[in-house]
Structure formats: structure tokens, C-alpha cells
Amino acid sequence: MLSTTPSFSLLQKLEWRVRRAADSPLGGEYRSAFRGRGREFDQVVKYEYGDEVRDIDWNVTARLGEPYRKKFIEERELTVVLLFEDSLALQFGSGRRTKRDTLLEMAGLFALLSAGNRDRAGFWHATPHTHLVRQPVRGRTNIINTAAHLLNLPVPELDAGGEVDIDWKYFLQAFPHHSLVLWFSDFPPRPLPAAWAALCRRYQMIGVRVEDPWERVLPQSGTLSAVDPMSGDLLQFDTLSTASRRRHARWVEERDSYWNQLFPSRATRLTVSTEDDLLNALIRFFKARMHAVH
């Protein structure tokens, strides 16, 4: 029997929603949106008009005197890696749900979909000072236990400070080629990872960005007191001043520019708000991805 910890309770609620959506586009679109490890040779068959010319088996064709081609089947099994960048900034939330809560729920949804499609799933959890790796596992119970472990990890201490530094060289060695890597973060403006080109060649890299409504549009609230999670300083921020709004607009522009540079294709990036219905956001992403890649 599964535990009744808060993380398991959340997963049970998410799984109930996923099952209710089984007749919606969700079930098939997850499989269609992400490819497996490649193609596996099945057999040689007669070439027919319209078949892929590159698949012709010239040795068999020469021997039998008529064109034959290689037939392949897709290797459906997928290895899913939940890369969760647990930065201190994720603890912000202007409404009922923080950015961290939002990303964890989205990670839980992806984990459940991978379990339902008989994929393998693991995670890499990175904080400002540590990282935790769980190798991909197969089977519903194992994947749910893995996801619950991720969702139940403690919130990083604000007074510890610092930024998350992902060891990309180690990451490249930790997970198999062609894995689907779902990178959960708020993606602040910063230099591109040094190993980014190698990561994109080795894996299917998908960015999942979270934003709070206040990050997109500043509220008309006058002066606000806020703690900077990176420095621990108490700051006074006047949301009505022209200078503040200009700085905010510049930050939004820089953030979006970095996001688009990191993931140029809409098929590789998903932005969710702390106010979104996450299951519906996921369905919209799968539809957009299938439209972009087919």
C-alpha cells in the first residue's frame, strides 16, 4: 500500500485527474509528442511507391532483381528525467500557490504520464548547495515512489543563500542517450550552460518555466516590502514609480530573451503560471508540440 504522506496525497489527486482525462487528447498526445529511443530493424519487405527511398536494402534488391526496403518499428520506451532546479526564487507566490508548488505539481503530472505509458522515470534535484540523483525506474509503483520522493524533498533554507549550479558534465554521464529531459525552473536571465550544445545533441531537452502573475505585470500596489531570497535583505519596492516599472520591464525582456535563446522552438518550451490549470496547460503544450514537429 502507498504511503499517505502529503506528496502521495497530491499524486493521488493528480492521478485521478489524469485518469478522468483518459478520453481527452492527453493519453494519446503524450505518446505522440515524445519519440522513443529511435527505430529498430524489423524485416525486409517489398518496396512500394511512396516508401522512403533511403530505406531501400540495395543488397537484397540486387539479389532478387526488384526493390526491397528495410522495415523498422519504433522503440517506444522512453527514459524521462525530471531535472528540478530548486532555486530560492521558486518560493515566491503572490496567490494561493508558490512557483515551487506549481513546478512540483507539473513534475508529478509528467511522472504519472510516464508511468501510464510504461516509460522509465528518474530525477535530478538541484539546490544552491546540493544535488540528489535518482536513476530512472520502470513500473507504476516505482515511478510513483520516485515522484513522491521528489515532491517530499524539503524546501531549501532561505538564509543559506546562493544560486543553483548544475554540474552539467556529471549530468551528461548520469542518464542514457536520447532521454527526455524535462528541466523545471524559473529560468532567470544568465549565461547559457557551457555544455548546452552537447546536452541538446544527447537528449530531448524540454524547458518547463514557471512565472507568477506579478512577474509578468507589476501590481498597482504602491510600496511593497519584500525579502530578496538570494541576499536575505528586506527591500522596499515602489511598484508605482516610473524607474521601478522600467527596471521590471527590462528584466521581463531579458528573461524572455534568454528563454527563447535557450529553447528557440515552441515545441521545446512550456511556460505555466501559478494560476494555471496545469492539466489543461499540459494538453495545450502537447497539441502545440505535435503541430510543430509533424
Note the topology.
Layout: H1 6-20, H2 26-33, E1 38-46, H3 58-64, E2 68-75, E3 79-85, H4 99-116, E4 120-126, E5 131-138, H5 140-151, H6 168-174, E6 180-185, H7 196-202, E7 204-211, H8 213-216, E8 223-227, E9 234-238, H9 242-262, E10 269-273, H10 278-293
Parallel strand pairs: 3-4, 3-6, 6-7, 7-10
Antiparallel strand pairs: 1-2, 4-5, 8-9
Total beta strands: 10
Q: How large, in whole angstroms, is the Cα Rg?
A: 22 Å
Shape: elongated
Span from first to last CA? Answer: 42 Å
- Helix- and strand-based class? alpha/beta
Strand order across the biggest sheet?
Answer: 5-4-3-6-7-10
Number of helical segments with 4 or more residues: 10
Strand content: 15-25%
Describe the protein in words.
With 294 residues, the protein is an alpha/beta fold. The protein contains ten helices and ten strands. The strands form three sheets. A six-stranded mixed β-sheet has the order 5-4-3-6-7-10, sandwiched between helices. A two-stranded antiparallel sheet has the order 1-2. Helix 1 (6-20) packs across helix 4 (99-116) and helix 2 packs across helix 10. The longest helix has 21 residues, at 242-262.
